[in-house]
Amino acid sequence: MEHALAKEAKQKMEKAIEAFQHELVNVRTGRASVGLLDSIEVDVYGSKMKLNQLGTVSAPEARLLTITPWDKTQIRAIEKAILASPLDLNPANDGKLIRIPIPPLTEDRRRDLVKLISKLAEEARVSVRNVRRHYVDETKKEQKDGKIPEDDAHKLTAHIQKITDECIAKIDDILKHKEAEIMEV
Questions:
Q1: C-alpha dist (Å) from residue 139 to 4, 29, 56, 132, 164
Q2: Residues 91-121: pLDDT tens digits?
Q3: d(CA 109, CA 89)
């Protein structure tokens, strides 16, 4: 049976991986992805709303996104929010539908994006290592307080290290996959 500390550590490390994956969704590749627009907020009805709450976002082609707003009167506000975003996209609308062509990435932009995702991956690794450090310290504290025998503390520390290694390997795999996606022409 897995010790409660190891279980908690694993859950927190997996949260760091999920956060990393969520960050990557917002990084543009040369392909159309409906998740690309998830971070865009639109000023409508006197407040800010996520773009995906205002209409249907789809990717009918590899290099095209379309947005079908549920309220056609908000089409200009949606278009304005997309133009203001850091994604560098140029939407066009016909009064009913917004089309967003996804231009191919330049070589320099690809390299910049790879640097960005590498930085995000390192932040995720650091987060996982911080969780490990915290739970190894907790293990030592419980051993010192006499709650865990020394042998069990060593086993638990080794188990936490194993979980850490698995999580870092997972981050590296996700990074490698995203890099390949960005560098794909």
A1: 11, 42, 49, 10, 15
A2: 999 988 999 998 888 888 888 889 989 999 9
A3: 14
